[in-house]
Each structure stands twice: as C-alpha cells, then as structure tokens.
Design a protein that fits this description.
VC0802-like, Rossmann fold, 4 domains, seven-stranded mixed β-sheet, elongated
C-alpha cells in the first residue's frame, strides 16, 4: 500500500473523487484543490492510469519531508534510495510545483531535487543519470506546500488528458478530461442510450470522448508513453492483465452521436481524430452552422457544446448576436432536449435568455469556466426578453437615424456619429465608418455597477446589427476611459483593419482596431472645412498634426505650402499616406518633433497655423510636461512669433472646463480673438457641444 495522488483541473475534484471510488473499491479518498489523495495498491494506480477519464496525473509518492530551506529540500530528496527505482543509465525529469519563502521559483526547486539524485548516484556508482525534459525514463513529480514537499514518480508520464488520438486541433482546443467532465455534469453518462449532439464540435473532442464512454473503451488504451515503463518496481504482468481485461470489456455504441461545425476543415480534423481513436464509425459528422442546426434524431437527447468564449473585448461584437440567435434556435428547434454549454463568459450565456437548471465551475486550461445546464421544457422555450421594437437603446438609435437621414444625404462623407450616450444607462458612442461601426464604451460612473454596465453594453451590441443592418463582424468595440496626454494614440491591437473613407472631397486611411482613436477625429469635420476655406495661397502650419487630416484639407484648399509637425513617426507616416491617397504632390514638409520645443526655435513664418494640442502630455520624448490650461499662452506666444502680419491661428482643444486667457493673448499682440466653437460642432455632435472648443486668433 502506498500514498497515491491523482491530479485534475480545478473544479473537477469531487467528480474525480467519485470516479476513483468507482474504479477502486474500498479506497478512502481525500479531496484537495485540484487533486485527490488515498492509500492504495499498485494495481489500483495502474487501473486509474488506464481508466480515469478525469485525471491529469497519477503520482506514486516516494517521500515527503521538509523544504523550508534549499538544504532541507535537498536532504528530503536524498532520503530516497534512487537505485531501488531507476538505473543510472535512465533519463530523468523533475516537474516541480509550488513555492515558499525558501524555494522562490519552481526551476530552483527542480534543480535541487535533480542535484540530490545525481549526487547520490555519483557517490555510490561514480556515474550520473542524464536529464531529459520530455519523455524521460523516470519522470519525477514534486509539490511544495508551505514548508513540506512531496516527491513521487509520475506514473502517467505526461498528462492523462492526452489520449494520443489528436493529430490536430482548432485554435482553442477543449481538453479531453474537461470534455468528459462536461458529459458527466450534463447527465448524459447516466443515459448513454440517449442521443448526443455537439453543434460546435471543433476537432471533435466531446463526441469522441462520448463514443469512448459509450463503448466502454479505456481512455489510456492508445497511449505509448508511460512514466512507469522503465521503473524498476514496474509490474508488467499486472499491467498486461489490465490491458487485456479492458479490451474484453469494450461494447458496441448504444447511442446516436452527432458532431457538427461550420468549418469544413475542422470537421476533417475531427474525422481523422475519431478514426485514430477507433470510434469513427460511431459518430455522424456534419458540416453545419450552429444557428441552423437541428436535432439529427426524433428522440430528445443531450446537446453538449463548447462554443467560442470571446476572451478578447472586440470578439463580443460578433458573439453577442451569435448567442442571441443561438438562444432563439434552441427555443425553436430543440424543445425537449437537455442542453449543456461551457463558457468562460457567463454574460454571454445570459444572452441566450434561457433559464438555467444547474451550473458548475470548472477550468479548461487556465480559463475559469462554467458549465450551465438548461432543460428545454415548454416553459423554457417561450420567447422572452426585449426585442428591437420595444428596447430603449434600439428605439433611440432608430430615432437618431431618422432625424439624421436628411442631413447625412447632404453631407459629402461616409463617417459620422449616430449615437452619443443619448441615454445615460447606455453610455456609449457609435460612429459609422463606411460599412463599419465603431462602438466606444465610456467608463461608467461610480454610481453604476460594473455588472449593470456590462449588461447594458451587451444590449447595445445585440441591437446594433438589427437596427443598422451592419454585419456583427464589422462592428468594433473600444473602451474609452479618461486619457492623459497621447495615451489615446497608444497601440491596442495588431489587426491593422484599415479602410479608406471620404470626407468633403478628401480620402483618409483609418484604422478601426489598433488604436483607441481611428485616425480621423469626426468632431473636427467642420473645423477642417474652415481650414480649407482659409488656406488658399497661404503657407500653412499644422501642429500636433496626428494623421494629417487638417494638412490634407489645407492642401486641397489650395495652400501654397503645408508643414506637418508631430512627435510620432507612426502618425507622420500615416499623414504622408493620406497625402498620397489624395494625389497631393505640392510643397509639403513633414517634421518629427516635440511641437512645443520645435515652435520655440523655429524661424519660419506662416499665414495660417492650426493648433490642436492634447489636454496633457508627459511623453518621454518631451523635455517637460505639457498642460493645455497652464501652457496655452506660452504655446500661442510662440505661434504668434511664427505668424505673418494678418495671419491667423486656429486654436482648438478638448479639455473640459478650459478657459482661454484672452487678456494675456491680447497683450501678446493678437488683434482679434473669435470664439468659433459653435460653428465647428457638426450636426451629429450637437448633443455634445462641449466635445471641443475652437478660436481664431488674428495677428
């Protein structure tokens, strides 16, 4: 009899305990997070290796002792007579888990155990075993907990979830033992004569594991590598007997198992995996969209699936409409079935608008997930929940589109705002960019709970496609919190979803995904027109130019020359691209510099200067911080010095509560200061008249 530890994923401990007690009569198990402990025989340990569908590893404990110092860990490892377990010619590996104040990283812990083993062999035989990271002859498992360490032989060799039938997987494969846990929690394993269907089958894991269960095929039958194969205490006769007994217990599949997926390539992978698992003939594979999938049999059964989770924020724009449609399909086509869905996003499951009967926590890899069961009885399939016809956000959006319809027709642009936090509870802005929508979620006020704000956002993403007709795949979601300096220009993603849009005779490249802002400030549409009207035959300077949209309009307006200055080379290159898009080849200069420093020392003279600085900046490239309220007089003084007589500065910023120091500017020599803010606020931004302020200052 020996101490045996069987590990699994978090959330599967109690299921594993039940399974072990079923496999090994008479054992008394003790649960701990992610593992089950018991005193058992080698035969029982072998049986678990071969038959457990829920375990990850089976550890035959060799010693337990102190590890409150590196020396204690070394001595605990030295207490094992390693020659009783392995030959000096065998390879070894050490898989170390846990840390404490003395053993501060797992690599150090593994090295100390390895040193003890090697030193023991060198002292006694003057030879040493070598280390092999993968497929070692003697894989050692060690776990440190506080000041104690447990060291044992990993009989499983590598994780038991690796059944050896998967040649390929999809992007986010479901682990085999988690698939089995889903089948157990769904209730199907108690009714294996009932039909089973998976409508998001991916590489086929759920269906294959179900077929193995239905046919009573031991999940470890095809594994070629075991941690005990070269163990000196291995009982090959005992193992062979267990293998032969397992072969004799296999039965024909008593149930109908159907696996479908929209991706034909994944179905091909699933078929190959099923063939390698020996259950190809027990599963019907179908290429089918989950939203149109229907029961493949007349008798109600169990639908068990692992749909996409949407780990990235932007993926929600596609998944929320998907889950809404999926919920409707369940109600329309699957009445009488038991449905079990695994997801790491509980909010997505709420979009199904189904009443859950039970739910269970379980990890899939590092993801904390929940398996939620639904009984699709008559009450649960009744349609409920708001529709686009009676939903507050949808109704307001429809009113906005109706009100803006005439205005949009009159505009020479395909970029505009259609919603701007009109309803406080739906605190988002929605902008149109051609055939795309960009949804910016403002950080919710402290009075609104995070959970409520998240549900409101889901409703926005659910109703947007229905009201606007835009494909969910072309809706981009961003979260906008209060930004400082040029944080709004920091890169968020690497998708590079660029498209070309137009505005009043100009073309612009925008990137809807990779940055918080898209490359075109829509609220400055009318401001750019004012610049274009004033630019003819003038030397124009565009400071804090961002992607150069003002420079483009100045050039198209007939400017004699345009100088574009920004601290970011990325945005200057973008500005050059915008110039090329508009076939502008006239005299243009692009300067990468800190605008505030550059302006102080620049000797040039201009007829028109556009200045749209950030509210605050503390970029490392700047010699000092910049605060527009504190520093605008100094900035405009430097602009005055670079201005020709009769020249104008168009000064804008978006700091809330900003106060222009008229008196100080008049003392500088500006002869006229005109507030043109209202003339620069477009119709689609009328609700937010404080989005920016703008003045014309004349020398």
């Amino acid at each position: 009899m020996n101490h045996i530890i069987v590990t699994t994923s978090r959330g599967l401990d109690s299921l594993l305990k039940t399974e072990l007690e079923s496999l090994c009569d008479g054992i008394e198990c003790r649960e701990s997070p992610g593992s089950v402990h018991f005193i058992g025989t080698l035969e029982q340990a072998y049986k678990i290796c071969l038959w457990s569908r829920l375990a990850n590893r089976v550890i035959w404990v060799l010693t337990e002792g102190k590890c409150d110092s590196a020396e204690d860990l070394y001595q605990t490892a030295m207490s094992v007579d390693w020659q009783q377990h392995m030959k000096v010619s065998d390879t070894l590996s050490v898989n170390f888990h846990g840390t404490n104040r003395a053993i501060k990283n797992t690599q150090f812990g593994a090295v100390r155990i390895k040193d003890a083993i090697v030193d023991q062999f060198v002292e006694e035989l003057d030879q040493r075993p070598s280390v092999e990271r993968q497929f070692a002859d003697f894989p050692i498992y060690a776990r440190c907990h506080r000041d104690k360490v447990t060291i044992g032989l990993d009989l499983s060799g590598n994780s038991l979830h690796q059944r050896a039938y998967r040649s390929k997987t999809g992007e986010a494969p479901l682990k085999e033992h988690v698939a089995c846990a889903m089948l157990v929690r769904s209730g199907w394993t108690e009714n294996t004569d009932k039909p089973l269907q998976d409508i998001f089958c991916g590489s086929g894991t759920i269906a294959i594991e179900a077929a193995l269960i239905a046919r009573n095929i031991a999940p470890g039958m095809q594994r070629a590598y075991w941690g005990f194969s070269r163990w000196l205490q291995h009982r090959a006769d005992l193992w062979d007997t267990l293998i032969n007994d397992a072969l004799a217990q296999q039965v024909p599949c008593p149930s109908k198992i159907i696996a479908s997926d929209i991706d034909r390539k994944l179905i091909a992978i699933a078929k190959k995996n099923a063939d390698q698992a020996g259950v190809f003939g027990d599963i019907d594979f179908v290429v089918c969209d989950a939203l149109s999938a229907t029961p493949g049999v007349n008798t109600p059964g169990y639908l068990v699936s692992n749909p996409p989770y949407g780990e990235r924020l932007g993926e929600l724009t596609e998944l929320i409409p998907l889950f809404s449609a999926l919920g409707k399909q369940f109600k329309n086509a699957w009445e009488g079935w038991q449905v079990s869905i695994l997801s790491s996003n509980r909010d997505l499951l709420r979009v199904l608008k189904l009443r859950a009967s039970k739910e269970y926590a379980m990890n899939n890899g590092r993801l904390e997930c929940r398996l939620v069961n639904y009984t699709l009885d008559a009450d649960n399939v009744k349609q409920f929940g708001g529709s686009a016809e009676n939903h507050d956000f949808a109704n307001r959006l429809k009113k906005n589109l109706k009100r803006l319809k005439g205005w949009i027709k009159q505009q020479d642009t395909n970029c505009y705002r259609i919603y701007d936090a009109d309803l406080p509870e739906y605190n988002v802005a929605v902008d149109v960019y051609g055939d795309w929508l960009v949804v910016q979620e403002y950080a919710p006020p402290k009075t609104v709970s995070e959970d409520k704000a998240r549900r409101r956002l889901q409703e926005v993403l659910l109703h947007l496609p229905a009201v606007t007709g835009v494909n969910p795949k072309q809706i981009v979601l961003k979260v906008r919190a209060q930004q400082k300096g040029r944080n709004q220009y920091e890169k968020l993603d690497e998708k590079d979803s660029r498209l070309t849009v137009y505005e009043n005779g100009a073309k612009f490249a925008v990137n809807l995904t990779d940055y918080l802002d898209t490359g075109l400030f829509l609220d400055h549409r009318d401001t750019r027109q004012i610049v274009a009207q004033k630019a003819k035959n003038k030397d124009v300077l565009n400071l804090f130019s961002y992607t150069g949209s003002v420079s483009v309009h100045a050039a198209l307006g007939g400017a004699k020359s345009v100088t574009t200055v920004d601290m970011s080379n990325t945005y200057l290159q973008w500005a050059k691209e915008n110039m090329r898009l508009n076939n502008i080849r006239s005299a243009n200069a692009f300067i990468q510099a800190d605008c505030t420093t550059w302006l102080k020392t620049h000797p040039g003279k201009y007829d028109l200067i556009f200045v749209d600085p950030p509210s605050f900046s503390n970029s490392k490239r700047m010699q000092s911080t910049f605060d527009v309220q504190r520093d605008h007089v100094s900035l405009l003084a430097d602009a005055f010095r670079c201005l020709n007589p009769g020249g104008e500065v168009i000064f804008s910023n978006n700091r809330r509560g900003f106060k222009l120091d008229d008196r100080a500017l008049e003392e500088l020599g500006y002869s006229a200061i005109t507030d043109i803010t209202q003339a620069t606020i477009p119709e689609d931004f009328a609700r937010n008249s404080a989005i920016h302020k703008c003045w014309v200052l004349t020398r």
